[in-house]
Amino acid sequence: MAPRPLIRLARRGLSLGLSLLAIALAIFGLLSLAPGDPLAQMPLTLPPEVRAAMREAMGLDAPWPTRLGLWLWQALIVEPLVLCDTLFGTTWAEGAPRLISWHSRSPVMGLIADRLPQTLRLMGLSYALGLACALPLGLWQAHRYRSTADQATTALTMTAYALPPFVTGLLLIWVFSITLGWLPSGYDNSLRITDAASLGTELRQLILPVAVLTLQITAQLTRHLRASAIEVLGADHIRTARAKGLGPRALLMGHVLRHSMIPVVTIVALGLPQIVGGAIITEQIFAINGIGHLLISSIHAGDLPVVQTITLLVAVLVVLANLLADAAYRWLDPRLTR
Amino acid sequence: MSLRPSRALWALGLMVLGLLAAPPLWAPGATAPDLTLRNLDASFAHPLGTDRLGRDRLARLLLGGQISVLTGLAGMALTVLLGTGVGLLAGMSRRLDPWLMRLTDLCLALPMLPMMLLVVMLFHGPLTAALGQTVGSFVLITTVIGLTSWMQCARLIRAEVLRLSGMEFTRAAQAMGVPPWQVAIRHILPNAMAPLVTSATLAMASAMIAESTLSFLGLGFPPGTPSLGSLLHEALPYLGTDPARALAPGALFALIVLIVTWAGESLRQSYDPRQ
Amino acid sequence: MDFVQLKDLRHNRFHWTRRPAKTHAITAVIALCSALATPTQPLAETRSHGDTLRLRNWQAPATLNPYLSAGAKNVEAASIVLEPLARTNPDGKLVPWLARSIPTLENGGIAADGTAITWRLRDGLTWSDGTPVTAADLRFTWEYCMAEGAGCAQAMKFDGVSRIDIPDAQTVTLHFDAPRPMPYQAFVGPETPVLQQAQFADCLGPKAQTCSAQNSAPIGTGPFVVKDFQPGNMAEFTANPAYRTPGKPGFDRVILQGGGDAAGAARAVLQTNEADFAANLQLPPEVLTSMQTAGGGRLLTAFGPLLERLVFNLTDPDPASGATGSTRAHPHPILSDPSVRAALSLALDRKALVDLGYGPAGRVTCALIPAPARFAPAQPEDCADQDLARARALLDQAGWRDTNGDGLRDKDGRPLRLDFQTSVNPVRQDFQVVIQDWWRQIGVETNLRAIDASIFFGSDPANPDTFQKFDADVQMFASAFAGTDPGNFLAGWRCENIPSPETDWQGANIARICDPGFDALSAQLAETADPEARAQLVQKMSRRLTDSHALVPLVHRGRVAAAAKDLEGPRLNPWGSPYWNIAEWRRAP
Questions:
Q1: What is the residue range of A287's domain?
Q2: By residue range, what is the domain housing residue B213?
Q3: Is the pLDDT of residue C537 over 50?
Q4: pTM for this structure?
Q5: Is the link from the previous residue into C249 a cis peptide, with omega within 30 of 0?
Q6: How confident is the model at residue A8 (pLDDT cuts 50, 70, 90)?
Q7: Which of residues 245-284 of C touch A (CB under 8 A)?
Q8: Does residue B236 form part of some domain?
Q9: C84 vs B250, C88, C121, C134, C402, CA distance in Å?
């Protein structure tokens, strides 16, 4: 009896591992076809011998199996070992060649570690706010199903869902930053939080980017929450509860909320790739130095190691989120563990 | 505002027709430069003014709308084609179903925007060199959109195909000895039009959004081509001094996408067996 | 969203037995963890803005070692910390920096036969960590760049240096393998500063790429030292306690921030006071002028050697020629005629081009070497006027007439149609559109093509779209020469430097010009040392090239920067980094 969930988990883990490997191969395969030259940004006064020497030093001309093997080994073995080293003070990865960015000659993971906090902060805050807005909104809409208020709110959420983040971002910048002047249009990446004043500045400059992303998340979640809440409202046991005389508030909070929360986990996990895309664009508009911004600038610079690694990381993140959602889903819904 | 599908579809049809069929009215002003008319303000002859090369801004805006809608339609067509193909195959063939579903799950797990950026970065050069900047970008964007959006459509079609396969008329056709591909094309597909049309409309909206995102990031259409996304991209430096440059394409884009989404949502609601 | 999963739920009956708070807890914990997991920045002392110089560049530096990457953003950022023996000031004159004086023939610094140059270091020079700067550091820097496998981007500045002698700790002598009239290449300018031997000793050869600690925080003699460097993002510097001039620099702290775009950087300086200085602003002219009138700061411009030009292909790129396309085996059927080229050049309105693309950041010029002033002709604008009538007349005389009435000239059955390609760049695309329109007015049809910059300027020999392969009739791009002397630059147009299959399509003579008279002048220039004579020769050579109309200068492009109202000291330098005199900058009282 006991091994069955473990076996299932192991099988899931194995298939996920294989999917990750397939994703890594797909990414590398795509990128190895890149025709651009990372040295094209160098000034034209650079003579050809120097260019050739630089290409060789960057390892650009090695055959593709070598580069693939090296990348996989560096990304999957060396870099986690380096992480262990920094966290636990061990020396397992001493002397091993690390993934080096072609453009900045520094370790890729260092670049990513520099930028990760900003992206996490942006996405974490947006998700928290989005959930906080979507839950009451979706429930209230289901409660007032088919009324004018419901339809108006549906139209609003549909508008927010349909508009891409760069349109809402530009609109918000124009209204709040340029016309009203209340909020800054750019993000000061060098701001250090040292006292209440700087914390206030940091919060002020986060408002617009977080608002853009929260709008997207709220719209996405509200639609699905409303749909699942409506389904639950039509269920037998809810009708029984109403027949028993349960008031609307107790009904919504006590029964409907719990039951319609189950798909939220799945929705959050499945919607993650879209939100990552939204975060990339938001970072580009507001010049926040997060992972998305690093990805775009590395693409423009033709910096393959960084682009490869970031795409792999995002894919890993999405796959992990799906795994977590799966596990949480099974735990939340007792029917599935039977 | 009731979400009756007929109203929404009328609006959609009218808008698409208007954008696609009206070029003779404004096309010349959109492309030919005239350095004597640079940067004029709004006037009767030029309702939105002229741009830095003397071209009428309203004409360029409409041309941009046309390009964006065309790209959206083409992307939608490819998405629906791929998705329907995979969904049909998965629903009809028991052997291929688990593999196709695994492939769909794998593709769903890939982050969309980074993968789109990747593919655009790789193939932009060779394609534009072979086919010219505009046509090459068009082909590239359409392909990228199709390759990254087919999964939702495939899942929907597969679910519908599975449902229809269990029905009497399909079993009857199979019992009569109709070959499976004929069953698929003649019997199942016509009955699966509901989710197909729904996902087609929604796919068009997301195709337009994808194209605008790419152009906005500078990786879509080349700088001279006025798609709505690249018009927004060009207007960014002027946001502080002349915000109308960004607001006009943004408003038109929002309008088009909203109408398309409205049509798709109302279709989905009307075909939902829940109602 | 996955409709299948939701629909599956619909049919099941529920019996909830778990505690309701669990679902709240899960989502709350997930969201909270992600928001709180991000570490806040470490505490630092609060500084008033008067102490901190805030710099912006639309591209953030990727490395602080100019030997590993010749990109302007890296070289400029590094110039805040690392210094060379001599620098060029905005007027084009060499000024000694770490050296005591500029070596010349008169003071014996340059050997009489031109094969050696001797530099003497200032007295009492120390690195920012207190150790003295010696000649050994200079020789080590040369070895560092020349080492096998280092991938040094500045190797050409040490071109011809056969050995370096160290007579004493303050003196260094560079020996060349052949007499060089202009020996001021090595250790002059921000591209080749002095590196500390003690710091970079373990970074020779292939290890140069991986010494990220050294590359991110090089020890230098400059007014600031590196405190923190985040590649591609920002760099933070603090004042050098061991700086040689007391009372300088005028700031305790410098923050160089990049990323974002030029408009944001300009806005930060000129409108919102979020920065003090923004360099390398490439913006549409209307935006520049409107920001200037906002009054928050001032625009600085400086004009160096950067010239936007048209290049005509004197050879036939026809793919029917196969592998010998774009080589001298097949002269161009249309553009070999100098009157056709002259007509095409006459149809251009350079003033309109400058207004359209660059505004205050551009100047009209018809000279190939527009700066420094001693190499430029007296009247650089004497070809500025557009003359469509004369252009049409020239084409008529050359035998190109419209015989079939389609609006397009033709001759012997060949229509006058040209392929015009350039890199993807909004200003260049605009130029292409207007030039196409002007040429249409004189009866020439043009097909426009734009190629990604990473491919156009890449050097892949197999790629047909590089600017060296020149698979078109007309190209447009900008180039400049390093330093203040265009000798090597002009030598690039010798016959032997034509890109061809034998040279893997490498070579600087993109137009495929082969003029024995020009080659002779270039050989003469290589042996001339007298500055006056050099200036005359250079003017003669550049006039010869522009008179042939194979190269058509379009716009003299300058560098633009924005400085805050209360910032004193910045002087934009077209020959070096915008921060070349950052030690002199101060906040106005």
A1: 110-337
A2: 78-271
A3: yes
A4: 0.76
A5: yes
A6: confident
A7: 255, 257, 259-261, 264, 267-268, 272, 274
A8: yes
A9: 50, 11, 11, 13, 60
